[in-house]
Amino acid sequence: MPTSPVRRVLCPLALVAALASGCAIDPEPPGEGAPHGYVEGAEETAEAQTRLVVADAGSGAVTVLDLLTEEATEVASVPGPRGMAGDGRFGYVAGVDGVTRIVDSGAWTVDHGDHVHYYRTGIGEVGELPGEAPLAVVGDDGASVLSAGSGAISVLDRAALEDGAIAPGAGTAGATGAAVPLAGRVLVATTSPGAAGPARVSVRDREGDEVAALAEPCPAPEGAALTRRGAVFGCADGALLVTEKDGEFSALRIPYPEPVAEGERARSFTGRPGSSTLAARAGDEAAWSLDLGARTWTRIATGSTVAVTTVGEDGPFLALGPDGVLRALDPADGRTEAERPLLDADAVAEAEGLVTIELDTERAYVNDPSGGTIHEIDHGDDLRVARTLQVPGRASFMIETGR
Predict the structure, then answer these.
(1) What's the Cα-to-Cα distance from 318 to each of 77, 180, 232, 283, 362, rounded to whole Å?
(2) Sorting pLDDT into bands at 50, 70 and 90, what band is 276?
(3) Considering the domain boundaries, does residue 388 fall inside one?
């Protein structure tokens, strides 16, 4: 698929510097009969346009792999990639030069709750974002929120990103490093200056002004996710689920079933987009399954793992061990339902945490950082290898988009 032109504009950044500038041709405006869910300049399709954004830690090449056509498009070059995150459409690749390159995979899904719309457009590089590398990115149709290890939060306007520009919102003073967009607001875990006691979740508008503060505390917040059930924050004593109705935000604590050691708490969440179940590692020998519908945690004795995730909705819990074997576990009792050797154990050890599992409703994807191989797995059929995909260079970092 050819790379489409993108527009870059000069814009002041609260937390970053400026972009280069360029131009693009704006698409024709929609007519009066534009269908529900219309996205200007994009093509609506009948099925999800799933793609993988892959970065090579050696060459710095960033490639978008179309999973329908298997066509690979090199879209950017990043000096010494050292991390990558995604928000469902855009990939954020951090380099050793202190700059994060944002690339547009050209594929995304708009979820209206009772139905979804699938879209595609051209692939391209949006621009550069100087500053601290984001550890996580969470996005909705209004904003993409980047959280860094130091606690710094950047809020990027989603419409501007879609138009090929980087337009940051106001700063988020007092943030602890966990933030999520929800219902036109940004939820930020904060500690008031000089205040004693645990952090709380602040509800802010896109200009950074606080409009509400939730009463439920979240001790030592770390890790956040956006789901159909609401926004989730990882806390020292469990999780905080934040929901919105008619403009009002409320929070519900989901405590761990028993006291949890600091090294075994959930610190980051993974899972299938659209699911109400999340996964997290629980130290060196176990993992957590968080069911937001049932409001329960389940500790699963996975043994040592390098990556975990969950299909949810009666699907399996997936765990990849340091032996390179992918295992499907029953999320209720941890029983092994299937296993599939995928990677060489030495390659997994050398990868130092770069192996990931990306997931959608039908498939899982596991990258081999020692080469350009990506394994496509049918997680509903005893972990059958559906395809072995190839990208140029090495698949050091990988995210899935278009889901």
Answers:
(1) 32, 25, 21, 16, 13
(2) very high
(3) yes
Measured CA to CA in angstroms, residue 134 lies from 85, 280, 353, 369 at distances of 7, 19, 17, 21
Q: What's the CA gap between 46 and 44, in Å, rounded?
A: 7
Q: What is the pLDDT of residues 219-249, one digit of tens each?
A: 999 999 999 999 999 999 999 999 999 999 9
Query: Strand, helix or coil at 205?
Result: coil
Reference 242, options 215, 205, 222; nearest CA is 215
Residues near 144 by Cβ (< 8 Å), separated by ≥ 6?
87, 90, 137, 138, 155, 156, 158, 161, 181
Please indicate, yes or no, if residue 93 is contained in any of the structural domains: no
Q: Tell me how many domains the chain contains.
A: 1
**Domain contains 359:** yes
Q: What residues have CB less than 8 Å from 397, skipping those under 6 apart?
A: 54, 55, 57, 81, 83, 84, 93, 354, 356, 367
Closest C-alpha to 177, from 134, 139, 237: 134
Contact 240, 218 (CB under 8 A): yes
CATH number at residue 372: 2.130.10.10
Is 143 within the bounds of a domain? no
272: alpha, beta or left, given left = phi > 0 and alpha = psi -120 to 50?
Answer: beta
Beta strand pairing status for 72-77 and 61-66? antiparallel
H or E stretch at 43: strand 43-45
390 vs 350: CA distance, rounded Å: 20
Residue with tokens 């149709």: 141
| pLDDT digits 0-9 by tens, 89-108 | 999 999 999 999 999 999 99
Q: Average of pLDDT values for 262-268?
A: 96
Q: Where residue 113 falls among pLDDT bands split at 50, 70, 90?
A: confident
Q: Does residue 178 carry a pLDDT above 90?
A: no
**What confidence category does residue 334 fall into, taking pLDDT thresholds of 50, 70 and 90?**
very high
Neighbours of 5 (CB within 10 A): 11
Check residue 197 and give its pLDDT: 63
pLDDT in tens, 9-63: 323 333 333 223 333 333 334 444 445 556 778 999 999 999 999 999 999 999 9
294 lies in which domain range?
267-403
Question: Which structure tokens are listed for 348?
Answer: 């997994």
Helix or strand (DSSP H, E) at 242: strand 238-245
